[in-house]
Amino acid sequence: MTAIYADDSVIMRGRLNQYLKMAGCKIVGCATSARSASQLCEELKPDLAVLDVIMVPGSGKDVALDLKQRGVVKNVLVITSNSQDSTIKPLRAAGVRTLTKPISAEQIAAEIEYIQSQQV
Amino acid sequence: MPSLDQVCTLIQTEVLGIMQANSVGLPPGQVGVGQPFGQSLSEILGQYQAQISIFPIPKAAQNRTSRKPHWVTSIDPPVTLTVQVLRNSNTWTLTFGGVAAGGYNIHTFPNGSRNDCYYQTQANDTLDSVATAVALSITNQSISGISASASGPVATVTGAPTMRCGIGGNCTMIAEMRRTMCPISVKVWAANAPIRNQIGALLENLLAPTYPSPMLTAPDLSYVWVRWAKPGWNDDSQSSYSLYVWEALLEAEYATVATTTGTAVESIPITGIDPNPIYTGGS
Predict the structure, then answer these.
(1) Nearest partner of B105 among B168, B60, B62, B148, judged by Cα
(2) Candidates A27, A89, A93; nearest CB to B212
(3) Is B276–A114 a contact, with Cβ atoms under 8 angstroms apart?
(4) Which one of A10, A50, A65 makes the best mutation probe of the B interface by having the most chain B beta carbons within 10 Å?
(5) pLDDT of residue B170
(6) How far is B267 from chain A (nearest CA, A)?
(7) What are phi and psi of A97, to 5 degrees?
(8) For residues B79 and B168, is the Cβ–Cβ distance under 8 A?
């Protein structure tokens, strides 16, 4: 499964890079802003996009909804520190998967496993 | 936070790897951190024909303060104890496996996130005693409608609407407080144009398409992200002195981190259940 990830924090990017690789993903791109994440997804058409919510400039939430609506990326996982319904509900209603920080390698692995099980 | 020297040393290792992988006969000392002085450069070029210098341009560095620091484990602590959670109608079984050891933190949530039933393993624990202690930690919370018992390495919980169980160890945690983006120059100095072109092309072709850019691990276990800021270019302005230069600019991004001790508790996914159900409506 090919994946891109986007987060403005270099520490979080490092962790996502590590966890996605551990889960067997092939990393094809990495972005530091919502805008560049959107561009990367358009360009690379990964199987999975993992996005942070707040990435100035732009919002990972908006990018996730847009990518999902337009079918650019089939699987979108949003990682957020905000577990409020106003953030989570619209994403899940659109079929975007969500995880709340802090995240662990096991959570990412469980997500990848689940996504793969749905593709069989 | 890695120093700029440490950042350059990480890039030096990457460049050395490229040189060695492509059998370029350049001794390791010829891929150096910092600018060579004029005299030593002429000596180097007389002996080895090429020198690769990696040095930062700190004046052009930019800093950004992190909005809200998020703590992550700097390195996940090894845990030899495992748990498998299975649902069977109104009961849940927590089956402990692997090797029990002292100091692990077991958090069980039998009722959403409202009740954290905690047990820290002891040095003389066995799988059976862990299951007994975890069942007791649930019983001790006196949660209405929820009971727990143990038999062998299996704890059985009845009446719990949901179940999460995690096992973790003590660890160091880091949070990003600020990140720095600093241009790093990679400069090839060669005694003739063909050597310069060969090495420049190697670096260009092997670093440039690296997609995504390398994520390197600093000595303090934080990360250094390296990407091209400006592709390579040739500089023949000193060719009359038999000095041929190729230069490229990388950007290294790295974090200033705060450190604390913490406990990593890994959430164990429940077999056969979507770990992240899609919201289907309702309040």
Answers:
(1) B168
(2) A27
(3) yes
(4) A10
(5) 79
(6) 7
(7) -85, 150
(8) yes
Quote the ipTM score: 0.76
Residue B272 has pLDDT above 70, yes or no: no
Query: To which residue do tokens 């954290």 refer?
Result: B116
Q: Which domains does chain B have, with CATH numbers?
A: 4-55+181-251 (3.30.2000), 79-168 (no CATH)
Q: What is the pLDDT of residues A26-53, one digit of tens each?
A: 999 888 889 999 999 999 999 999 999 8
Our CA-based measurement puts residue A70 at a distance from the nearest CA of chain B, in whole angstroms, of 19
In terms of residues, how long is chain A?
Answer: 120
DSSP conformation class of B24 = -
Q: What is the pTM of this model?
A: 0.72
CB burial class (10 A; 0-12, 13-18, 19+) of residue B196?
buried
* Amino acid identity, position B139: T
Contact A10 B213 (CB under 8 A): no
A2-117 CATH:
3.40.50.2300
Best mutation site among B107, B215, B256 for testing chain A: the one with the most A CBs within 10 Å?
Answer: B215
Q: Which of B76, B176, B213 sits opposite A11 (nearest CB)?
A: B176
pLDDT value for B14: 85
Residue of B257, B278, B280 to mutate, testing the A interface (most A Cβ within 10 Å of its Cβ) = B278
3-state secondary structure B82-121: EEEEEEECCEEEEEEEECCCCCCEEEEECECECCCEEEEC
- Could you identify the residue written with the tokens 């024909």? B49
pLDDT, tens digit, for every residue of B50-98?
888 999 998 888 888 877 777 777 777 778 898 888 888 889 999 999 9
Pairing verdict, β B50-56 and B31-33: parallel
Give tens-digit pLDDT for A50-78: 999 888 778 899 999 999 999 999 999 99
Reported confidence tier of residue B115, pLDDT bands at 50, 70, 90? confident
Q: What is the DSSP letter of A105?
A: H
